[in-house]
Design goal:
2 domains, FAD/NAD(P)-binding domain, alpha/beta, 4-stranded parallel beta sheet, 12 helices, about 475 residues, 20 strands, 5-stranded parallel beta sheet
Amino acid sequence: MTRILVIGAGFGGVAVAHLLRQAGFRDLTIVDRAAGVGGVWRDNTYPGCACDIPAPLYSYSFALNPDWSQRFPPQPEILDYLRRCVRDFGLEPHLRLGTEVTAAAWTGERWRVTFQGGGTDEFDVLIPAMGQLSRPKVPALPGAEDFTGPAMHTAHWDPAVDLTGKRVGVIGTGASAIQLVPAIAPHAGHVTVFQRTAPWTLPKPNRRYRPWRRALNRHVPAVMRAARAGTWLLTVVTGRAVTGNRPARLAVWALSSAQRAVQARGIRKTVTPGYAMGCKRVLFTGDWFRTLRRPDVDLVTAGIARVTTGGVQTDDGVTHGCDVLVYGTGFAATEFLAPARIVGRDGRELRDEWRGGAYAHLGMAVPGFPNMFLMYGPNTNTGNTSVVYFHEAQARYIVQAVRLLAAAGPVEVRAEVAEAFDAEMQRRLAGSVWVGCDSWYRTGEGRVVTNWPGMASEYAARTARLAAADYTAAAER
């Protein structure tokens, strides 16, 4: 019996656990440090939190949801969807919630895993599915510890903090802030947005699904499949824009520019990005620019010098009074698997192996770490389409890998295979928009370790069939 440990109960962990169970692997344990499933959709509960990918594509192809209330569903609906999937897939008996993995070491035959509190267990297969967006990133601003009001990251939202009538400072203008600010502006006394780099945006074509449409989805599933296919085609256009196709980029650029021309009158210059489209995720919004033009909202572009006891002082010497500070500053996306300590064959530590930047063959397998396969690993992030699509491709590949090792014993990816893949990724990304950006995609060494350089369909094709020759049995080492 092959014992499998999946670390993380978000979209990635649930996908791989479900497909493994369908393939007949029932000695399966799913751990998560939190008390519930959901990953980022459990952790992010800030006002306005919603999906920025249309719902027909932001769901499993094998579990389409007929009951979305709108095209871009809010966080509670996505979390409920994932909870239903866990129940419907029969995964509840496999869950060990409130359980954090602190270390895992390869013994020569199996993985010995240590949990918070000191307990240990052994597994044949280790599948980290902790994601790239699980560790909030808070900048080390001078004086931050002196601020006397509530301060929180969007991923650690405190619902007990009442923003009504308060002066709220929002640091960052990324995907979370662009949803949060329009949601809180009508209730807060004043909102000050501190912008380092303006985001590229596109109009958000949201719409509510009426009861008759939801009923049609339930009774005629082909309608949902057609909607999914149509959404996919739209992401193909934006994907080609991000990966350098000139006509597609011009079309998306024109749509983005038109949105700013109509909605950002008076602040257009301030909200026009100074970097190439695709450097950071293109964001969908219908109310961001209108909110920034409100008389009770200020957009500040001067750099932050320090945080004071009662606000934020910028490089121009102005102090902006704030009662509450919110960090919409993203995640430590390049710090894969941290803070767990992973030790592979011959005592090799993963953090040492990745000191110059994380890498893995197809984003999943690292030489020297037998029987370990990552979900949402290096170079598998997408800047334009649904990450759930990538999760499914990875889960199908990992099922093949587990079948291989169940029959042949421990396996690991060949070093030359992983090195060749990494070299290809860095070569292709070297000519991309990501390298030229001051963004979280890059490591300090200039390597792009998060993003996939091509179309999502290419990734699906390359992971569709595992090549056994890419792996070597432990007995051969």
